[in-house]
Amino acid sequence: MRTLELRDGIVRMIDQRRLPQELVYVEIRDYPTVARSIKEMWVRGAPAIGAAGGFGLALAAMASHATTREDFVRDLEHAGQDLYETRPTAVNLGWAIQRILKKVRASNLPVKDLRDLVVAEAQQIAEEDIATNEKMARFGAALIQDGDTIIHHCNTGPLATVDVGTALGCIIEAHRQGKKIHVLVDETRPRLQGARLTAWELMQYGVPMTLIADNAGGHYLYRGLATKVFFGADRVASNGDVANKIGSYKLAVVAHENNVPVYSVMPTTTIDMTLASGREIPIEERGADEVTTIEGVRFAPQGVRVGNPAFDVTPNKYLTAIVTERGVVYPPFQENLQRVMDPVEG
Amino acid sequence: MRTLELRDGIVRMIDQRRLPQELVYVEIRDYPTVARSIKEMWVRGAPAIGAAGGFGLALAAMASHATTREDFVRDLEHAGQDLYETRPTAVNLGWAIQRILKKVRASNLPVKDLRDLVVAEAQQIAEEDIATNEKMARFGAALIQDGDTIIHHCNTGPLATVDVGTALGCIIEAHRQGKKIHVLVDETRPRLQGARLTAWELMQYGVPMTLIADNAGGHYLYRGLATKVFFGADRVASNGDVANKIGSYKLAVVAHENNVPVYSVMPTTTIDMTLASGREIPIEERGADEVTTIEGVRFAPQGVRVGNPAFDVTPNKYLTAIVTERGVVYPPFQENLQRVMDPVEG
């Protein structure tokens, strides 16, 4: 299931707003529409947004009428700015745009070849995401045993990436390997990514699953009916504290209390070694409508005050291990993350 | 705010299905409509349902054309059966109906006086609920200090009872006493009683509050932004294990982990000394629609499998104290609950 791709000058992506009711692919031919697709969340999930930003730049490069290097770079920078402003807190978006701009600025190729360079680099970003996720999936799947029932929070499947996914990628890979598993899918209030996307993805892959309200996870853990917890990460500090979708912290604490292993899965690009701990990670506060309404239908009182932190921090002591494309990292995280981030050259 | 009352032969109740959009009182003149109001949840909350059952029997008594004791008792038993079958797992409903039937069977009064006896007993049940709740509210309010930010789960306010409420009654009483407090209202998925009812009630009473997704509670606890947790109870075992709305357990564990006190508030009628522990409390599994839809809007995939346990059990070790109308009970709960349930006569 390829979330988005660039082929023959056209970006083709799943319109995730229509899921799970229908699977619709949209074809995009210009970068302003790519910008709109990011802003309006036709595409979401950090790695997928990064790839979309790269593809947006590729469309801009192809459309540029510039005949000089300077004009071409100016066109690209302008498009990059428009794309970046759609979701400025998405780290991967800025990273992908900067990576391509840097490549162009460093090149001495003539303008017509610069166009190909941008397209190639955008494709490279997407392909690297898939390759990274496939490695993570294999490392993570090795942690899953026959008979496991896994609680999964939010959406970390193919739809959150270019393909394969992160935490859900591990689960799908374990199923593909023939392990008999069951997934308890947290609906993940307030945006319900679990109910809308993760449940749908697991059904597509035929992975046995049960959708639950986030509140129910504790019951299953307490009764011994859940044996593993898997979730992704939005940002990881150097000590292994993990910022992830709101509710990950509650889930991890209660799993830990019941001696159930907790795994957080992310590419090493999500790990920020400049942060001493999770306390330094700013928490985005989102709009009230996510909490008070569903599909525009309001169920909370008019005028109610709402708190809507989008993420929380799970301190490292509640994590059994961190899964990256370079391997599984166990405590002490500070030391072992350092080793993974700066591999000693052979 | 009186949730329901019986006056001049008419049962008047708030139609809670219309909240929080509008405050509508319905007037009911016959017991089959009372039965319908319970079944369709115009009225909900254990003590309120008990009182409604009693009022239903009172309407049945007034409507009975019986001229003999035997016929009158038969009419009452028939009505009692109809009322009871609306929500057979509601302990208070069966209890209220049996209490009235027992009173009638034990009486030697003539039929016309039996009618008054039923009405008086039904009124007595409602008045006792209010008196009990007022005592609990005062005991619980004493545990709340100026400056507290309290996380509250589900709905335990006036609307869940005849008036005053249980856990929320303590919070409203603390506010009434002039304590400066703030309430973080768990929306309480899947039925959203917190978002629909608790938020509305607190706004009516002018208690400062913020509505949050249940997932967000952990973030506030971890950041030191919540200082107390209050919730009610559906059933309490002799060792102090508390069965309550799904999600109470997760909340209590995470509060405990952050050294935040957790209080469960209930009348002593909710405590079942025949149960050795919470493991013996059966957990009701409810329909899938509560999880897959909100306000009739479906957001989960068609055909998805759903788990929907309505309650979970919070083991006694996560509770700081249990608040009843007879006082605040601290650990060791086994011993101290016994003392409260069987008070030594002076």
Structure description:
Two copies of one chain form a homodimer. Chain A is of the alpha/beta class and 346 residues long. The first copy, chain A, has helices spanning 31-39, 46-63, 69-84, 91-105, 111-141, 167-176, 193-205, 217-222, 248-257, 289-292, 333-341; strands spanning 4-7, 10-14, 25-28, 149-152, 182-186, 209-212, 228-231, 235-237, 242-245, 262-265, 271-272, 293-294, 297-298, 306-307, 311-314, 321-324, 327-329. The first copy, chain A, contains eleven helices and 17 strands. In chain A, strands 6-5-4-7-10-16-17 form a seven-stranded mixed β-sheet, with helices on both faces. Chain A has a four-stranded mixed β-sheet with strand order 11-8-9-15, covered by helices on one side. A three-stranded antiparallel β-sheet of chain A has the order 1-2-3, covered by helices on one side. The interface between A and B is large, with 55 and 55 residues. β14 (306-307) of chain A pairs parallel with β6 of chain B, so a sheet runs across the interface.
What key attributes describe this structure?
homodimer; 346 residues; Rossmann fold; seven-stranded mixed beta sheet; four-stranded mixed beta sheet; 41% helix
